[in-house]
Specification:
The complex is a heterodimer of chains A (325) and B (310). Chain A has 10 helices and 12 strands. Chain A has 325 residues and is an alpha/beta fold. In chain A, α4 links the parallel β3 and β4 (138-141). Chain B contains 13 helices and 2 strands, in the order ααααααββααααααα. The longest helix of chain B is centred in the first third of the chain and has 29 residues, at 2-30. The chains are: A alpha/beta (325), B mainly alpha (310).
Chain lengths: 325, 310
């Protein structure tokens, strides 16, 4: 009997822990004066005093083990705090099964709008359909859903980013010369959109010619070999645009090995740590950075707009930013 | 002495059940949504995959073994199911192939352990890596999509208002319960786990009984893989990572001894329920998922400490 008692006490202790960390912020009445949520980023609690209609948004994040999505969460949290609404954040740790369970639990909590940053565009469909059935609007963030009804999709404007990169290259080479393009995995949406924007900027500019557009699959090693081949065929190129930084860094290796770093400038995409360092060292001309905080903020603001009865666009582009020296 | 032992056994069996009830009551007090019909179905559906794997895992652990390959077997058989079905194979055939594959990997585990005399931990650790690697080879590292709707309903469908995964879980539990409690093979499994030597002297076919438990566990993992594939609307190459630990946790929290010979499949289902209630309840309460992992660890630790004190 003693043992049962001990076990029960322990279980109760766990339950208390739950009660404390939720009760803390949940039992307070609204919100604008309330300090931002605790470290976990969650706000808690179901015990909204009756009569008070607090808006609750649910945010299911793919993983908080990646700084990109932590920034996304922070942006969403800041926007929710500023608007005085509650934001419940769940971390799926990149496990699609866990994400579905978490979305189901958010539906059970009757959140007003669901923001989902899918772990996988196919796997999330079950979760989106469950929300549709419960009549809760869904906004996807960063990655889209391949099924179900989605109110809006908030993601980086890759077309605009490609255009920014193209325009920068035109400016840096003085509107004159041959350019090469390293493309991402054929058919991938990021590759398509970034390429489209790039071509909008450079095609038809007098004196500029894109002499090579070849896929290197977002891969650094492939970027290296493809660039080696391009250098053989077109020794006079003056600039390279790569659809991501990995390929840009691979191309950089090929260019430096060929001793042409003074002649050819490289622009990448994503602003990975390696690429930003290369830009700072002057080896790369620029890279295009996504803004995850903006993504989170726009997600929350779109949700609130919808709840206010305003119409929202199906696709909400998040602006990008050039990183130069 | 005899009476004392029996009382202790009762305590062991009652502990997890009482803990589940207390935890359920506590969560019901804290959240108005916890004890709603829709959330109960929600919760049961969420635990079904873990509970099904854990039923198989209970058999293995009762013999004193362990199976670390279940997560990878789940992924591999789910991938083969999705690959065949999306490639035009009629879905019942694809499902059969998926289950047969799970059983075959289990047979491989069993043979390596009993004939090759490899420790179960090491043998299934190797199988875990092999099956995960084969999954990546088979899928090319990308999810397989395009499932027929019949397979989707394995994970998302309802029969008479009850989600299909819950029904499958109930059937698996019943079969495992009947086998352990009402069939000779059940007694053999306990005997092997209690004392392998004396089981052998008593004429129990130890190798065959042990192998059978791995085959059934592989089968359970494949079945769970089929459900997960339906639920995810796709076969994910990384599906099931860490599921072996979730299943072991459910078995241990359910009061089954890792040393073998003592425990029950009912306890395991209750163990899966406790772990599921923690996740679901803490989600409903808005507790950060970071703390949820801490809570889960504490519960596992408590369960093992109870086992020690026995």
């Amino acid at each position: 009997m003693k043992r049962i008692a001990r076990f029960l006490v322990a279980v109760l202790a766990v339950a208390m822990l739950a009660a404390c960390s939720s009760g803390g912020s949940g039992s307070q009445t609204p919100p604008s004066s309330e300090p931002p949520a605790q470290t976990g980023g969650e706000t808690g609690g179901e015990q909204t005093p009756s009569g008070e209609e607090t808006i609750t948004l649910g945010l299911a994040v793919s993983t908080l083990n990646n700084p990109f999505f932590v920034d996304l969460r922070d942006g969403a949290q800041a926007a929710a705090d500023a608007a005085g609404v509650k934001l419940v954040v769940m971390d799926a740790q990149d496990d699609p099964a866990k994400q579905i369970s978490q979305v189901e639990d958010l539906i059970t909590q009757k959140v007003d709008v669901l923001l989902i940053n899918p772990t996988d565009s196919d796997a999330v469909v079950t979760a989106v359909e469950a929300a549709n059935e419960a009549g809760i609007p869904v906004i996807t963030v960063d990655r889209g859903a391949n099924g179900g009804e989605v109110l809006a999709h908030v993601a980086s404007d890759n077309v605009a980013g490609g255009r920014m990169a193209g325009e920068l290259i035109v400016e840096l080479i003085g509107g004159q010369g041959q350019i090469a393009e390293l493309e991402g995995i054929p058919g991938a949406s990021a590759a398509r959109d970034r390429g489209e924007g790039f071509h909008q900027a450079v095609d038809g500019v007098e004196g500029i010619e894109v002499v090579a557009s070849q896929p290197a699959d977002f891969d650094r090693a492939k970027g290296l070999t493809v660039m080696e081949n391009i250098l053989q065929a077109h020794p006079d190129i003056v600039a390279v645009f790569a659809h991501n930084d990995e390929m840009a860094l691979g191309a950089l290796e090929a260019i430096e090995a060929a001793g042409k770093s003074d002649q050819i400038l490289v622009v990448g995409f994503d602003a990975t740590a390696d690429a930003v360092k290369a830009v700072e060292e002057g080896r790369m001309a620029a890279t295009v950075a996504q803004k995850p905080q903006e993504m989170g903020r726009l997600g929350v603001e779109t949700a609130l707009k919808h709840l206010n009865g305003e119409s929202v666009d199906e696709y909400i582009p998040v602006p990008l930013e050039l990183v130069t020296q | 002495m005899q009476g004392n032992v029996q009382i202790k056994d009762r305590v062991r069996q009652l502990g997890p059940g009482l803990a589940a009830i207390v935890l359920g009551l506590a969560l019901a007090l804290l959240s108005d949504q916890f004890l709603t019909a829709s959330n109960i179905l929600n919760l049961l559906r969420q635990i079904s995959i873990n509970a099904i794997i854990a039923c198989g895992m209970t058999l293995v652990i009762l013999t004193g073994g362990i199976d670390l390959s279940v997560g990878s077997v789940l992924a591999l058989s789910g991938a083969v199911l999705a690959g065949l079905a999306s490639g035009g194979t009629p879905w019942p055939l694809a499902l059969l192939a998926c289950l047969a594959l799970g059983a075959a990997v289990g047979l491989f585990n069993g043979v390596v352990i009993t004939r090759g005399r490899v420790a179960p931990f090491v043998a299934t650790l190797a199988t875990m890596a092999i099956a995960r690697g084969l999954t990546l080879v088979y899928t090319g590292g990308r999810p397989i999509t395009g499932l027929p709707s019949a397979l989707r309903s394995l994970g998302t469908g309802y029969v008479l208002g009850i989600p299909v995964p819950i029904i499958i879980m109930a059937v698996v539990f019943l079969l495992a319960y009947i086998m352990l409690v009402h069939m000779p093979v059940g007694r053999f499994i306990y005997a092997v786990g209690s004392n392998e030597e004396s089981a052998r002297f008593a004429g129990i076919p130890v190798a065959r009984v042990t192998t059978l438990t791995y085959v059934l566990t592989g089968l359970a993992a494949a079945l769970a893989g089929a459900i997960l594939t339906g639920r995810l609307n796709s076969a994910q190459p990384t599906a099931g990572s860490g599921f072996e630990l979730d299943a072991i946790a459910a078995v241990v929290v359910g009061g089954t001894s890792l040393a073998g010979g003592r425990g029950s499949v009912l306890g395991t289902v209750v163990g899966a329920l406790i772990i599921g209630m923690l996740d679901n309840g803490l989600n409903l309460l808005g507790v950060s998922s970071f703390y949820q992992q801490v809570a889960q660890g504490v519960v596992i630790l408590l369960a093992v400490l109870m086992d020690r004190r026995k």
